[in-house]
Amino acid sequence: MATITPLDHLRSVFTPSAVNNLAHSLNENRTNTQKAIDGLLPTVTAGVINGVSDKDGAKTLYYLLTNTPFATESDIVELIGTGSERQKATESGNGLLKKLYDQRVHQVAQETNQYSGVSLGSATTLTGLVASVLMGFLHKQIVARELTQAQLAAMLHGEVDATRSVIPAMFGVPLAWFIGTAYNPVAQVVPVRQETALASGLLWWQWLLIALGLFLLTLFLLRSCNLNKTTAEQTNDSGMAAATDTVASDLDGNEPQVRTGVDLPGGRKLNIVENSFNYALAMFLATKNGQFPKVFTFDNLTFEPNLAQVTAQARSDVADLIQIMQAYPSLRIRIEGNTDSTGTDATNDPLSSERAEAVKQALIAGGIEPDRIATRERGDTKPVATNETEAGREKNRRIDVVILSLSAPPAGPKVRVAVDAPDGRKLILTDQSFTYQLARFLATKGSRPNKSFLFDELRFDTNTARITPDAQVEVNDLVQIMKTYPKLHIRIVGYTDSVGPESINKPLSAARANFVKVALVKEGINTSRITTGKEGEEEPIATNQTAKGRHRNRRVEIVVTRL
């Protein structure tokens, strides 16, 4: 009998009925609570797995699991129905995460709050509950199977790909430090552009070619049951599988699709569904030092049983992928076809190959060079959901897009771009900067408070609180944003590195936060809209063992407290 995985165990505990009761207990919407749990189960599991990625982390986790007095695993009904038990489990789970990570574990709850719509307090409770149940399971595994530290680490490492593959895409950037994915946002070099860019970017004759290609391909597939498996594989498969880092995008078909503008190189602007496959792909390509290969699930491209047709509903998503590949001419991908477990390998393998080839031909019909697209059959070997239900089998009939390589664009100067603001106004901000991210957040419908932004352009020399000329530009832009959004309230939090005692670092972090506040008030922002905080050397975002890391830790963060 196969050993149950940590993620499988969590799913067996947090069943839909249990989540429904939990939502009622927390006075939360059931759908929002389910969405929060669906995101937290793989995210917290990946966080624990990432915690054992080095020897010190593995040692810490093993110590916690073998020296923490775990009670008999609580029934989920007891955790839901008894406030004291729920509180105890929440505090235990969050406490263990904080001991495993010296970074900002509270960000997991903050991002869950933003992602699902549950309150920050409920998100914190859910994070703690998931962590508590997970840690209890791992403790039980150590005791029952007499696992050593190395065996525990090996067991967890074996689940890394399967776990990361179901993490919501929007967690990839803010929680990269926690789940172990390589996201390093960087300013993208693009010229100043108008907001009235084409929503599609394809001419009528290109659409005709795509439609013709899909029609001919469908006829070909229906008439041929023995399509040769075609690949353009140029890398070692075993090496690829070991190095793959996976992020699956999240798109809930029960909720309205919100389209958002995404900037592409060359001045293009693409309107795509928020948090979809193409959105996650575009965000990844805009980052620096991304690790390859990277896998994304084409979440809006599923198939009917035993068919390999690209549906009419998916054509707009294929068109968006074409535009992204046109904007990144050096991008090379591999399209992997997957099936459910219905049928045998003799039918599933060719079918998965046909599905991958169908997408490839659609891209070629849109003008993408064939040598930039490899294909691969996966059959039913990489399920992302159970094959015991129709809903699960539908998810498994899918396409994965693997990013194989991307040449870095040439470096260039920072540019100023126009960002939408209320009443048809425009904010002119530095592309991809802190203020750019803040303005985009404020302009997004449904944004909630308690969102933290790293003032990345504002860095300090040791023992100083002076604002550099580059940082002054961003301070001026922050003034512009606060005047545009008169109801916006913020909290400015100062941090230091670990050099010096707390008696110096705490006041220094307060001085850094206050310096920014004074600069804003001087420009006419009411002081009642700004509070400050001092964290000293607590919650570092980089190691304090190097000069580069200490420089990153000498920072200021801006928290949106009211909208």
UniProtKB/TrEMBL annotation:
Q: Determine the domain of life of the protein's source.
A: Bacteria
Give the GO cellular component terms, alphabetically: cell outer membrane
List residues of the OmpA-like domain: 290-407, 447-563
Q: By its UniProt entry, which Pfam families does this protein fall under?
A: DUF937, OmpA
Alphabetized UniProt keyword annotations: Cell outer membrane, Membrane, Transmembrane, Transmembrane helix
Q: Which InterPro entries match?
A: Bact_OuterMem_StrucFunc (IPR050330), DUF937 (IPR009282), OMP_bac (IPR006664), OmpA-like (IPR006665), OmpA-like_sf (IPR036737)
Q: Where in the cell is it found?
A: Cell outer membrane
Where would you find the membrane-spanning parts of this chain? 165-183, 203-222
Spell out the protein name for this chain: OmpA-like domain-containing protein
Report the source organism. Answer: Spirosoma pollinicola
